[in-house]
Homocitrate synthase
Amino acid sequence: MIYINDTTLRDGEQAAGVAFGIEEKVAIAKFLDAIGVHELEVGIPAMGRDEARAIRAIADLGLNAHLLGWNRAVLSDIQASIHCGLKRIHISIPVSEIQIQVKFQGRWRAMLEQLRDALAFARDHGLTVSVGGEDSSRADESFLIDAAQYAQEWGAFRFRFCDTVGILDPFTTHERVKALVEALDIPVEMHTHNDLGLATANALAGVRAGATSVNTTVNGLGERAGNAALEEVVMALKHLYNLKTGIQTQSFLELSRFVAKTVHCDVPPWKAIVGDNTFAHESGIHAHGVLQNSRTYEPFDPREVGRQRRLVVGKHSGRRLIEQVLATQGIHLDGDRTQSILNDVRDRAVSLKRSLTVDELLSIAADRACMMA
Ligand SMILES: CC(=O)SCCNC(=O)CCNC(=O)[C@H](O)C(C)(C)COP(=O)(O)OP(=O)(O)OC[C@H]1O[C@@H](n2cnc3c(N)ncnc32)[C@H](O)[C@@H]1OP(=O)(O)O
Ligand SMILES: O=C(O)CCC(=O)C(=O)O
């Protein structure tokens, strides 16, 4: 079983221009919990004010999901998490030279001591603590392993491997995560960014290398190009590796639309799993195949993610599709008429720069019927 720790409410909200209100954060947390997501990274208590109020409101809900607050290795951050009623926290430290330089002026020993003290403080307050290596992908490999082993020795229950700027490919991810997994007794979590479009692939590579937890966001929302998308990771784990998460995937479309509406940003039609075109077939050869056997051009049944198949009439359609759509409207054609309707469909689709509605197709069919009568 692979564990999903969704960070829509933390890294997702760090996307430029995204700012959830308290009620929105609560509603998203409830939705994720209701579909069986195991853990929610709910925000950054150290931000205080409304962010802290939202986190407390989520903590008060008594959800099934574990709740995690994000912290720097700073005691006041952890104190803020405690004030929000969290029992589980994440402490992040930078592990690459470039990040340690800007945040700790290169003083890595002092940074590790700060992590040790922060972990001790959190553990003394009864908290369960996960530790993250920010910029793990650019860290010196032995330093990364040393830092993770220290975190384990000081009581962390999990270590997060972060491809903070999304610069790994799946092969390198596999190598680096395998070495980390082999060096630790605690579980490893993947946190991957999509700067090169590889966030989901790298999260999966980490799982193949032995990571057992993935940090995801709905629609892949997150810093810059975003994070590994919840819906992509869960469906890929299921269909590529036969790994179960227990999450109700039939709600993915509704969840995606809910989050997209909340952030005032539509999901692109070609977005994997939840985009409008994901199960839409316009091209003649594809529709011809799908009409006989949907598996010809669909990786899995659209109902698994709350979707329906759509047959769309447009520039690339062929006769079989036109005949099928018109047959559903009670119109049965011979070959010559279908071809002339198809020619008109193509001209119209190019002039409108879109596919046609069923009514537009019916109107073309009616015009052609008059001309041929
Ligand atoms: C890779 C990631 O996504 S990390 C998460 C990033 N998320 C965010 O930054 C969103 C929320 N952040 C905030 O609200 C604010 O940045 C706060 C509350 C955390 C801190 O605010 P400020 O006190 O105003 O500091 P500011 O944001 O300007 O600078 C960050 C400070 O944190 C320090 N810092 C950064 N990472 C860490 C860390 N892991 N551990 C300890 N200190 C850290 C920096 O060195 C800097 O310290 P300085 O103020 O002494 O120079
Ligand atoms: O949790 C951490 O350690 C950092 C997480 C993060 O957002 C990142 O590295 O991109």
